[in-house]
């Protein structure tokens, strides 16, 4: 996503400005190590481009920047649930307006922190008190941390994901390793399946890998690089691509969009909200994904 063409609304520092695309404000980072963009709508990372490289993050050419719809591509923040186990799908965080709390930089990169608190709209669908921070660290690699705290007087349960869309040159040539052998196949009514050590796609995929390695690597011969995903605070890794038929059914994705991305997600998976992770009052949890290329 080319953010450099957007005019600055506010200059916050030498490296950080606020820009706007349609109805969405974006924290734009331009540093000698890398450039990046984080939308306040959804706390949504839409770009991470190390110097001299193509963007690691894929965004749909038809993503809707109206400040209402969830953005197609980037790193959607799915919280306080992941999937369609409640409405709205993937929770309210990706459709909420986040607040820029802090930014700081040095020669190694830039750190941007966003925050989200309860509102009438969040309480209407999930009646709990919370504090959510999104820490985005931009340098030679990208590290995104979703830090959630229970500020309520009672325990609550949740699930979630950092739903990263990775850019690849050609999805049929990309080879993924490190996702582990066992997965729940969402296209087969949640059947538990066993897979090989290397995954190369020829059709749609929607899988919850339950035993991922510390690193998942996507080898991309077309762009001549390997993308490395390291996750923490998760219990699984979701891999997803809608393929041609799925892309054609999405109003916010070009028909051939599926050819140039693969979702590799840091996921705290649960079949229902009640079966999610429990946080007692005052407790916190961090869900993390780190992206790099080599």
UniProtKB/TrEMBL annotation:
Write the Enzyme Commission number(s) for this entry.
5.1.3.15
Is Isomerase set as a keyword in this record? yes
Keywords linked to the UniProt accession: Isomerase
User: Does the keyword Isomerase belong to this entry?
Assistant: yes
For this protein, the record's InterPro entries field holds: Aldose_1/G6P_1-epimerase (IPR008183), G6P_1-epimerase (IPR025532), Gal_mutarotase_sf_dom (IPR011013), GH-type_carb-bd (IPR014718)
Q: Name one GO biological process term.
A: carbohydrate metabolic process
Which transformation does this protein catalyse, written as a reaction?
alpha-D-glucose 6-phosphate = beta-D-glucose 6-phosphate
Coiled coil regions, renumbered to chain: none
Which residues act catalytically here?
163, 265
Read off the Gene3D superfamilies from this record. 2.70.98.10
Which GO molecular function annotations are given, in alphabetical order? Answer: carbohydrate binding; glucose-6-phosphate 1-epimerase activity
Highest taxon of the lineage: Bacteria
Q: Which family does it belong to?
A: Belongs to the glucose-6-phosphate 1-epimerase family.
Could you tell me what this protein is called?
Putative glucose-6-phosphate 1-epimerase
Q: Which organism is it from?
A: Vibrio ouci
Q: What is the lineage of its organism?
A: Bacteria, Pseudomonadati, Pseudomonadota, Gammaproteobacteria, Vibrionales
């Amino acid at each position: 996503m080319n953010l450099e063409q957007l005019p600055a609304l506010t200059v916050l520092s030498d490296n950080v400005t606020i820009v706007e695309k349609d109805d969405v404000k974006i924290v734009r980072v331009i540093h000698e190590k890398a450039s990046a963009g984080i939308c306040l709508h959804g706390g949504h990372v839409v770009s991470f481009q190390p110097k001299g490289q193509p963007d690691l993050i894929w965004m749909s050419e038809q993503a809707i920047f109206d400040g209402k719809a969830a953005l197609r591509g980037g790193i959607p923040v799915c919280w306080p649930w992941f999937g369609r186990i409640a409405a709205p799908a993937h929770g309210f965080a990706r459709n909420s307006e986040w607040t820029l709390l802090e930014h700081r930089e040095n020669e190694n990169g830039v750190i941007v922190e966003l925050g989200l608190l309860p509102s009438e709209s969040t309480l209407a669908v999930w009646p709990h008190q919370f504090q959510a921070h999104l820490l985005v660290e931009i340098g030679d690699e990208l590290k995104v941390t979703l830090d959630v705290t229970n500020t309520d007087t009672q325990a609550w349960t949740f699930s979630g994901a950092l739903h990263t869309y990775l850019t690849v040159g050609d999805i049929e040539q990309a080879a993924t390793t490190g996702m582990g052998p066992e997965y729940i196949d969402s296209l087969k009514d949640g059947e538990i399946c066993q897979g090989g050590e290397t995954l190369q796609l020829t059709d749609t995929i929607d899988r919850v890998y339950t035993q991922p390695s510390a690193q998942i690597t996507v080898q991309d011969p077309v762009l001549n690089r390997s993308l490395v995903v390291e996750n923490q605070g998760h219990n699984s890794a979701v891999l997803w691509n809608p393929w041609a038929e799925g892309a054609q059914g999405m109003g916010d994705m070009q028909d051939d969009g599926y050819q140039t991305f693969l979702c590799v997600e840091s996921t705290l998976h649960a079949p229902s909200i009640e079966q999610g992770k429990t946080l007692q009052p005052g407790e916190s949890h961090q869900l993390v994904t780190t992206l790099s290329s080599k």
